[in-house]
Amino acid sequence: MRVVAPLLLSSAIGAVACVGLLLPSLNVVSVSALSFASPPSSSSSSLNSRRIGFGAISSSVSPTVTMKGAADSSDATATATATATTDYDVVRVDLEGGRDYPIYIGAGFDDEEAGTMLRSHIKGKKVLLVTNDRIEGWYLDKYKKMFEGGDDGLEVETVVLPDGEAKKTMDVLMLILDAALTLKLDRKVTFVALGGGVIGDMVGFAASIYQRGVNFVQIPTTVMAMVDSSVGGKTAVNHPLAKNMIGRFHQPECVFVDIDTLSTLPDREMQSGIAEVIKYGLIRDADFFRWQVDNMDKMIRERDPAALRYAIKRSCENKAEVVKADELEAGVRATLNLGHTFGHAIENGSGYGVYLHGEAVAIGTAMAASMSARMGWIEPSLVKEVYDILHLANLPTELPLDSPMTAETFKEAMSIDKKVADGKLRLILLKGELGNCVFTGDFDEGAMSDTIDEYVAECQGKSKA
Amino acid sequence: MRVVAPLLLSSAIGAVACVGLLLPSLNVVSVSALSFASPPSSSSSSLNSRRIGFGAISSSVSPTVTMKGAADSSDATATATATATTDYDVVRVDLEGGRDYPIYIGAGFDDEEAGTMLRSHIKGKKVLLVTNDRIEGWYLDKYKKMFEGGDDGLEVETVVLPDGEAKKTMDVLMLILDAALTLKLDRKVTFVALGGGVIGDMVGFAASIYQRGVNFVQIPTTVMAMVDSSVGGKTAVNHPLAKNMIGRFHQPECVFVDIDTLSTLPDREMQSGIAEVIKYGLIRDADFFRWQVDNMDKMIRERDPAALRYAIKRSCENKAEVVKADELEAGVRATLNLGHTFGHAIENGSGYGVYLHGEAVAIGTAMAASMSARMGWIEPSLVKEVYDILHLANLPTELPLDSPMTAETFKEAMSIDKKVADGKLRLILLKGELGNCVFTGDFDEGAMSDTIDEYVAECQGKSKA
After folding, report:
1. Is the distance from CB of A201 to CB of A235 less than 8 angstroms?
2. Cβ burial, residue B182 (10 Å; 0-12/13-18/19+)
3. DSSP structural state of residue A228
4. Which of A36, A60, A125, A202 is exposed most, by the fewest CB atoms within 10 A?
């Protein structure tokens, strides 16, 4: 059952008060029009009905309070009283023990303003800013200056790691710790992850074990990281035998999402991230799924900032709600892994880095849907919807000609999945109408084998052709 | 200020009820005489006054409830109604969130009984029992059988690591994780550390990062591990630049101390562990310190089980109280590191493994006392008491002739200490009467330099002689 959350609509002054609670040192008023406050381009809603559409989509999220810097455009005085320039959303990840934190989501941030926001989450005097050799040229200096730009004299050290999933190893992670110790950074340091999911996972994990745990901040620069990996505190490195097997739960101080960084994201990376957006629709948010169908082109081809921002915000709201309910994945949080058990097997069996994470998850999602239908848990029409949306996002739904995957490779890798308990594999499968899933070990193993065989056979059949 | 805790004296039936709360599946009644219930051989107390002596010594510990399996010998029916054979103490480490756990301390355990106790803390069906190549021959089979001996069909896998502080590295730790993944152990596995402080620290850390955290159990086999490192959840590996720099706080499910394992402990290891026992007396428990002076020979030369058991129990009570007050070392827990900043510098600067941890801590403790007196914080007579008790324990109080330590080496290593905050080193120093200390960055740096210079000069003077 879902509870309808009241939509928070504030005047410009109200917005100051709300944001002020989060950032006492920051005087922020948003000035944008309504365009970002509602699903920006749902083909089923006219301009006038947008707020209703937003309310309806928001209705599935109750514990997550979304505070908007954006003033209601019906308040004609908003722009007149504004003192700052950026419009952004704040999604809070609500955790026990005073560990709740904000996800800031916006575009067109003023560097000075964004610097103030970020610095308000740094408790010590030093920052270790970690990125990879692809992001370095684009954004490292920019963020270094933002951290250094205050009156508090923050010192910023930087580390640049090699890029890619194949580098998400303990050996590469040790480079971060080597640097931190060489620089004599003490327990009050804050590690900052500037990059995609690989950087976020590694820097978060490094922060969790440096001197038994230091603070960290996530600045995701890919859709994948913005909608999923930077939120919720999962950190890890891969092991040659299985993905993400070594890590910790370690929550960040804040997540800062600047949509503008997506302008430099390659198409493949963009599409990969959308696989996780699709996931939220499938497992728990049918309205969001339908919105995605209508807006996929806007997101991945036009890179429309409003559409992307809405998709990211809605994804973060979904994730924050799930993380709040089950931070350490004792149950419902596992549903965020739809398609991931098959997907991780593909990533591991193909060699880390051959697939982007979301590409492997897309194939895994198709497999999970196919298996669910094979057991009669969902209608064939829903499987078609899954395939269709993945294709809309230009994501793969089957293994390529040259895939090294065999039924054995799948089963071997899946036998070491983190969701195995007392020797029994558990999967996230779709069940019922769109937007519903189950996390269960009680499934037909024959259906799983048949699904794997079908996917492997298709690929092998093609490679013979 | 210290609060006097009421001494818990139970009849045999009362003891069943108490222990039963901890171990529902276990019917334990202790049958020993009073000898272990009080300081077993304090030269200042006669047999008749022992209970008073015990009460006085216990008085410094309030939140830690110590439950004794041992029945009060004044209850003449105790032995008659006993159904099991072992007498042991239970010290509870009282933590928030249902994470409190028992430390069992005893001798002469029946394997079947001990196996039942240990298995009651295993939640899944598999155990990964990790030890080193020195302990392996003595105790690995014994404990493997104890875990396997129940009706619950526990499966036990084993890993044997190379022994020694020099092997406390991330590379060696990865051998544990490699084994766990090769064996396809899932999240319900319990890692068991069988060995000294190095094994405990590494297995605990491995458990904390395997699949983002699995349960673990500590079975310490050295005095060092029994009185200090196995209790309180600190886990770590060393880094070439500094000791224990990479790790987590991760609490065990229980700690099981069988005093009998000390029968195979080399003298040097025995003495090393006593350095941490002395620490508790110096920082917070003057009565315990005086008891140690009177009983040092019994402990380290006679290896009197009763004396050792009392020292271990009293140490665990002190540690449990401190850990309860400050689990994550925001303040008072740091006082447990008396002598450790100097000591870690000696361990790192001399090459890991040259000194046993307690040997380096002993020199560090002498230095901390000397520096405290140099600043006028304690009387010279207390410095003499510190030196005297360390010598009684056959522990070093100065650097040896061939020490590579220089003032530079000390200062370099100490500059990366975990207690450095915002660039300022903080030390644990003695202040006032015996049993009092401070954790502070507000000390005379000249006194620290002079102390280091004195220790280094003595050593260099001797090496020239």
Report:
1. yes
2. exposed
3. I
4. A125
Angle between the N-to-C axes of helices A267-284 and A305-325, in degrees from 0 to 180, rounded to the nearest 10: 50
Return the domain boundaries, chain B: 1-85, 91-265, 323-464
Chunked mean pLDDT (size 10), chain A, 465 residues: 29 28 27 37 34 28 38 32 66 94 96 96 96 97 97 96 96 98 96 98 98 98 97 97 96 97 96 98 98 97 96 98 95 96 96 95 98 98 98 96 93 92 93 98 97 88 50
Q: How far is residue A202's CA from residue A172's CA, in Å, rounded to a whole number?
A: 9
Residue B69 pLDDT exceeds 50: no
DSSP string, A322-384: HHHH-TT-SSGGGGGGTTHHHHHHHHHHH-TTSS-HHHHHHHHHHHHHHHHHHTTSS-HHHHH
The amino acid occupying position A144 is K
* Interatomic CA distance for residues B445 and B260, integer angstroms: 45
Per CB-CB distance under 8 Å, the chain A contacts of B208 are: 248
Identify all chain B residues contacting A241, using CB atoms and an 8 Å cutoff.
178, 181-182
Which pairs with CB-CB distance under 8 Å and at least 24 residues apart come from B380-389?
Answer: B382/B430, B382/B433, B382/B434, B385/B289, B385/B293, B385/B434, B386/B282, B386/B430, B388/B293, B389/B278, B389/B281, B389/B289, B389/B292, B389/B293, B389/B296
The residue with greater pLDDT, B15 or B38, is B38
Pick the closest to residue A31 from A108, A96, A124 (CA basis): A108
The answer to whether the CB of A274 falls within 8 A of the CB of A188 is: no
CATH of A323-464, one of 2.60.120.40, 1.20.1090.10, 3.60.40.10, 3.40.50.960: 1.20.1090.10
Burial A396-417 (b: 16+ CB within 10 A, else e): bbbbeeebebeeebbebbbebb
Phi, psi of B420 (to 5 degrees): -70, 130
- Candidates B99, B183, B212: best to mutate against A (most CBs of A within 10 A) is B212
Name the β-bridge partners of B193.
B130, B218
Entry field: residues in chain A: 465
Nearest chain A residue to B169 by CA distance is: A174
CB B275 within 8 Å of CB B346: no
d(CA A408, CA A411): 5
- Contacts for B408 with CB less than 8 Å, ≥ 6 apart: none
- How many CB atoms sit inside 10 A of residue A294's CB? 16
Query: Does the B91-265 domain belong in CATH 1.10.10.10?
Result: no
Q: Does B103 score more than 60 pLDDT? A: yes
Percent of chain B whose pLDDT exceeds 70:
80
DSSP, collapsed to helix, strand or coil, labels residue B39 as: coil
Query: What is the pLDDT of chain B when averaged over all its residues?
Result: 84
Each residue of B198-238: pLDDT tens digit? 999 999 999 999 999 999 999 999 999 999 999 999 999 99
Which residues of chain B make contact with A415, given a CB cutoff of 8 A? 184
Based on its alpha-carbon atoms, the radius of gyration of chain A, rounded to whole angstroms, reads 22
Three-class secondary structure of residue B265 per DSSP: coil
Q: Nearest by CB to B248, from A212, A246, A418: name it.
A: A212
Name the pTM for this structure.
0.84
Please indicate whether, in this complex, the C-beta atoms of A187 and B423 are within 8 angstroms of each other. no
For Cα atoms A114, A117, A121, give the angle at the middle one, nearest 5 degrees: 135
CA distance B44 to chain A (A): 43
Q: What residues pair up with B128 in beta bridges, in sequence order?
A: B157, B191
